[in-house]
Amino acid sequence: MPIRPENRRRYPADWPEISLSIRTGRAGGQCECLGECGRGTHHGRCPNRNARPAYGTGSTVVLTVAHLDHTPEHCDPANLRAMCQGCHLHYDQDHHRQTAAATRRAALEQAGQQPLFVEPVPAVCEPEWQPRRRRPVVDVPGPDHWPAAAAALLTPLATKETDGA
Ligand SMILES: [Zn+2]
Ligand SMILES: [Zn+2]
Question: Which pTM value belongs to this model?
Answer without folding.
Answer: 0.61
